[in-house]
UniProtKB/TrEMBL annotation:
Residues 1-20 form the signal peptide. The keyword Signal applies. This is Gliding motility-associated C-terminal domain-containing protein. Keywords: Signal. The keyword Signal applies.
Length: 415
């Protein structure tokens, strides 16, 4: 087998046409506005440093045992493109600024047998990334995101996210994209890992062990969510999919409602985390989404629960309909009696679990939600929000005890 060894230098374009493998053992840099393409397997040895500030195109396997990185000021892009299966491997984590996955050889053409970290964006065009079978993982760094994930392209395996941005985990199993949505709090050092499984949770999580309020549990699928670093609760959103979720969970019953349920290791049972259900308009597969603030981590899925649980006693009256049209009627989210508890906080999330409002010392006069975004990231501040169902979290101090209430909020834009 012939090999090419590159010891050092900056190159603008490097095409391999007549060899079976390209090997880097030194310093190799792809400068901005230049391109490096490898038609055959690429191997970055332990002594190799690959700096991608331009376009790097891998048409075959990619292995990294050294350093793969980029300059923070650059917009380097790596493309995994091909018509044959591609193994992405190596003993060292490869750091990419941007990645595009586009391979037409098979439904699952990408085999991830290493850890790759993304600093900016992953574009899922075509081809499922199988990290589960090959013990790999994809990490999204602070402020990183992804686009175009669907049944045609996602990560089948572990996805880790670092940072405090609201994030959709692009996970799925087999041939189904089944994301979860997390609002992860204000700590930029929070780290979470999620994986979706289109299978039964197993004998270690018996479905007969459950809260009395849980009538039935989705035994066909589950999400495993771990908190690697941090201490905050998250707001979690899960979707129902007609391809994976049992049909009984789409049937409407006035005596029941849907909720997110979690396996509690300490109690050795499934617990009812509650939830607000919103109807979606994104296609036949994704028709419903459930959002709630969860009390722990681990195994999650969807449950059918009773809806007649008595509400805890309170002297607050929460008016959960808002129509900010300036007519003086329901122009704001009004919580009658909240002035008696100035040590409070109100958070409001949209149907995807993205925070759109967050205020302390909420009151009945000036600090109020009036249908405009005050989110910290993906929703612009002071921007009118669309009509729909929202989810609120109210926390207030009463007699030195912090009380928490959650529920629906209906926003209309009638003029």
């Amino acid at each position: 087998m012939r090999k090419i060894y590159i010891k050092t230098g900056i190159i603008a374009l490097f095409m391999v046409k007549s060899v079976a493998q390209t090997v880097n053992i030194g310093d190799l840099a792809v400068a901005p506005n230049t391109q490096l393409s490898t038609l055959f397997n690429f191997d970055n040895k332990s002594s190799g440093d690959l700096l991608i500030d331009g376009n790097f195109i891998a048409y075959a396997n990619f292995n990294n045992d050294g350093l793969v990185t980029y300059s923070d000021s650059s917009n380097g892009k790596t493309f995994f493109i091909g018509t044959q299966q591609q193994l992405i491997s190596g003993v060292e984590t490869a750091h990419f600024q941007n990645i595009t996955f586009e391979n037409a050889s098979d439904l699952v053409p990408f085999h991830l047998n290493t850890i790759i970290e993304v600093g900016k964006n992953v574009e899922f065009k075509k081809g499922i990334v199988d990290a589960d079978s090959y013990n790999g993982k994809m990490i999204f760094g602070q402020n990183a995101f992804h686009t175009d994930a669907s049944n045609l392209s996602f990560v089948d395996g572990k996805v880790e996210n670092v940072g405090n941005l609201d994030f959709e985990f692009p996970v799925g199993d087999q041939y189904y994209f089944r994301p979860s949505y997390h609002d992860k709090g204000a700590n930029a050092n929070n780290i979470y890992t999620t994986q979706y499984f289109f299978q039964n949770a197993g004998n270690q999580h018996p479905y007969t062990n459950k809260d009395e309020t849980i009538i039935s549990i989705d035994e066909a699928e589950y999400w495993n969510l771990t908190q690697n670093q941090g201490s905050e609760k998250i707001v979690l959103s899960l979707t129902l999919d007609t391809n994976t979720t049992p049909a009984s969970f789409f049937e409407e019953n006035p005596d029941t409602q849907l909720a997110i349920v979690r396996w509690d290791d300490a109690a050795q049972k499934w617990v009812n985390e509650g939830g607000v259900t919103a109807d979606l308009l994104t296609g036949a597969n994704y028709s419903k989404l459930i959002t709630t603030q969860v009390g722990g981590y681990g195994i999650f899925t969807i449950g059918i629960v009773t809806n007649d649980a008595p509400a805890p006693p309170t002297d607050l009256v929460i008016y959960n309909a808002i129509s900010p049209n300036g007519d003086g009627i329901n122009d704001s989210f009004y919580i009658k009696g909240i002035n008696k508890y100035p040590d409070n906080r109100v958070e409001i999330y949209n149907r995807w679990g993205v925070k759109v409002f967050d205020a302390s010392s909420y009151n009945e006069n000036d600090v109020m939600f009036r249908g405009y975004s005050d989110g910290r990231s993906t929703v612009k501040r002071n921007e009118g929000l669309p009509a729909g169902t929202y989810f609120y979290v109210l926390k207030y101090n009463k007699d030195n005890k912090m009380i928490e209430k959650t529920g629906y909020l209906y926003l209309t834009n009638d003029k």
